[in-house]
Amino acid sequence: MLALTYARSIPAFAVVKAAGGRADVATSALSMLKLGDVPEPQLPARDWVRVMPSLSGICGSDLAAISGHVSLYLDPLTSYPFIPGHEVVGVLDDGARVVIEPALGCLVRGVDPPCPRCAEGRPGLCYNVTEGPIEVGLQTGYCADTGGGWGETLVAHPSQVHPVPDSLTDEAAVLIEPFACCVHAALRGGATKDDMVVVAGAGTIGLLTVAAVKLFTPPKRLIAIAKHPTQRDLARKLGADQVVAPADVFQRVRFATAARRLEGMNRPLLLGGSDVTFECVGRADSLNDAVRFTREGGTVVVVGMPGEQKVDWAPIWQRELTVTGAYAYGTEPKRKGRKTFELALEAAPEMHLDELTGPLFGLGEYRDAIAYAMSAGRLGAVKVAFDLRRLRA
Ligand SMILES: [Zn+2]
Ligand SMILES: [Zn+2]
């Protein structure tokens, strides 16, 4: 079958990193990514199913891996070579449309009894990601044995497969996985109706976090930070009360919360500030701002995948901030233990998610697709995806 494959290669990683992760080098013959014919993934156990991806999104985490910016923390949690792609809408052998829940926890791996975190309904935090009939990997799309969305076929445990309602197009359904991450993040942030919330970043994760916070934990006021015109429009459409440029955030949060602003030698800080901040960029500038405009005793939820970034811990210490990660999905204690994916699938039909998807590329156009995705915000795009439906036509 045709697939894009990511191989672990220290020389290739060095070449790509030396070029600053530039798209042309990161997709060149010297890179980790190759397009070619590979064997179909085998069903690891009798109950597993085959899924033919229809659309597969390009995630920021995929771009980080391809461009050599990825945190090396994740390397031992990944098996190689793998077929990327964890934002997947596809079809089963019988033609049923499904989305894939990528986390590879105890249930998927056939580990019984499950580890304590899986038993709590948090398969993203599984201790047993090395166990069972498949290789190490946190998710489909980072595991050598499951295949991934950027290939013609992947294999999935039945618990990973969710039916897609007819009311959702493929273009909307391909966003269910990132939206589920954001629903999980919103519920972890736990904003109340009296809170002032800031969502920093307006790529896929930032925009879907705006929507998730608005739907699941509606606050008194939600300010989104967005750079590009399309992002600003979409943030407003998805529920932001106000959209501000990164350079204006201290001023706007100050007005919205009656905080006081002090100028520092490197950057300002607020006395007071937002109650809950969702950081959806994952880079030092944005993280350092977030811990300085979130109020004393407030919460910063790290949603966008960060890497090794230089962050000043003094504000976290002095303001007694709660900094919490929000990774993946599972079941939600604040929603009667319901699955995050079900919550996302229920909310999605009202959201016009398909407006966020495109352009679409064939696997053969992967160099253009990756380059486009790396500049999506500037080019007015949100979710760039591969269209594999043409391969079956
Ligand atoms: Zn992702
Ligand atoms: Zn587990």
Q: What layout of secondary structure does this protein have?
A:
Elements: E1 2-6, H1 10-18, H2 23-26, E2 33-37, E3 49-57, H3 60-66, E4 88-92, E5 97-100, H4 106-109, H5 116-119, E6 154-156, E7 161-163, H6 170-173, H7 176-189, E8 196-200, H8 204-216, E9 221-225, H9 229-237, E10 242-244, H10 249-257, E11 260-262, E12 269-271, E13 274-279, H11 284-293, E14 294-302, H12 314-318, E15 322-325, E16 331-332, E17 338-339, H13 340-347, E18 357-361, H14 366-374, E19 383-387, H15 389-392
Parallel strand pairs: 8-9, 8-13, 9-10, 13-14, 14-15, 18-19
Antiparallel strand pairs: 1-2, 3-4, 3-6, 3-19, 4-5, 5-7, 11-12, 16-17
The structure holds zinc ion (ZN) (2 copies).
The site of one zinc ion has 4 residues, from loops.
State the share of residues found in helices, binned by percent: 25-40%
Total strands: the figure is 19
Number of domains: 2
Distinct small-molecule ligands in the complex: zinc ion
- CATH level 3 topology of the largest domain: Quinone Oxidoreductase, Chain A, domain 1
Biggest β-sheet description: 7 strands, mixed
Principal-axes geometry comes out as globular
CATH architecture of the largest domain: Alpha-Beta Complex
Unreliable spans are none
CATH class of the largest domain: Alpha Beta
Q: What's the N-to-C terminus distance?
A: 15 Å
Whole-angstrom Rg: 20 Å
Number of helices: 15
Mean pLDDT: 97
| CATH homology superfamily name of the largest domain | Medium-chain alcohol dehydrogenases, catalytic domain
